[in-house]
Amino acid sequence: MKEFIISEAKVETAVLVGLITQTQDERKTNEYLDELAFLAETAGAEVVKRFTQKLPTANSVTYVGKGKLEEIRQYIRTEEEEEREVGMVIFDDELSAKQIRNIEAELKVKILDRTSLILDIFAMRAQTANAKTQVELAQYKYMLPRLQRLWTHLERQGGGSGSGSGKGGSVGLRGPGETQLEMDRRIILNRMSLLKERLAEIDKQKATQRKNRGRMIRVALVGYTNVGKSTIMNLLSKSEVFAENKLFATLDTTVRKVIIDNLPFLLSDTVGFIRKLPTDLVDSFKSTLDEVREADLLLHVVDISHPGFEEQIEVVNRTLADIGGGKPMILIFNKIDAYTYVEKAPDDLTPRTKENLTLEELMKTWMAKMEDNCLFISARERINIDELKDVVYQRVKELHVQKYPYNDFLYQTYEEEE
Known about the structure:
- The protein is α/β, with parallel strands linked by helices.
- The protein is built from 12 helices and 10 strands.
- It has helices at about 25-45, 65-80, 95-105, 115-125, 130-145, 175-210, 230-235, 280-285, 285-295, 310-320, 360-370, 385-405, and strands at about 10-20, 45-55, 90, 110-115, 220-225, 255-260, 265-270, 295-305, 330-335, 375.
- Helix 4 runs antiparallel to helix 5 and helix 5 runs antiparallel to helix 6 (about 175-210).
- The radius of gyration is 26 Å and the shape is globular.
């Protein structure tokens, strides 16, 4: 009998490319590339090399300069000679159709940009019909202006006789490339119309569900991706919402009824935000983000152990402003157990930076800045969770009294079992 040899699926390898520009210094570029590497890992790729280049702005033809592109090509060729094939090159910004076409022609490997990588992860993570529809619409929006590069092997025919004047590129003699391109564009536009209709139906259903949730305050967990929102959701609601140390573990909004002391309220866990989040995704995930729009209170979760947490706060605040923020908010600094700092030597007379601040100093700084609107916890180690529950209870109670003054609390006070 013939034996079957089971071999492990080969992990695709990836090379990352980023730019150091006038608006993005080397430290920030390396931070972005760290995040891009995490995105690639989440998508199932292994990063083997990074390339950066200093340019005033991205090259409109090849993103990086010719010399840097040649350097990347030489690296890919050397790896192939050593039988270590490079599967893809991922760029840290969104590329135009022209840039992708030119880079592919030079490097002759799969080219992805930050947007297409995020879309790929969203497609992988989508579980429900709602999420799948939203992701598919975003993918088509991304694909539509880039269709032409898929048909470069079928060039437009020119010359010859027929309905034209006999000169090159005569009218009526369009080649198969353009015909196929128009056909694909029409198919995609029709499909997008259908998906928009489906999402409109989903929006109606979601709106009806939200109306039927009774006279309860709505609280939404928001924040950057991978900051621990789902872990906090599990702690507060005593339910098992999927939580994983990967980007975009949560795509579908999960809503749970939570009871703290004698007060019931609704808590929703929403999709995480990220730097350079594609606009098409924000548009497509309208029904998911409606949970944020209609919430009475936002719990903004922040990973305090991340070196760029302040910029992540700004990204989330900007996105919230774009979708209609202005809600009461509590800032929850999570992962205090993972916080580290660099202690300065006694003879080091250089000014202290935020990397030199102890956790206590950082807490005092933010508490002075935010007054009573910030908390410091560790969801994983269950540090200060009781304080979190007390603060959330007080805020929800205040909102409940304002919004439903004639509605008594529905539950008697009870001792919570450990």
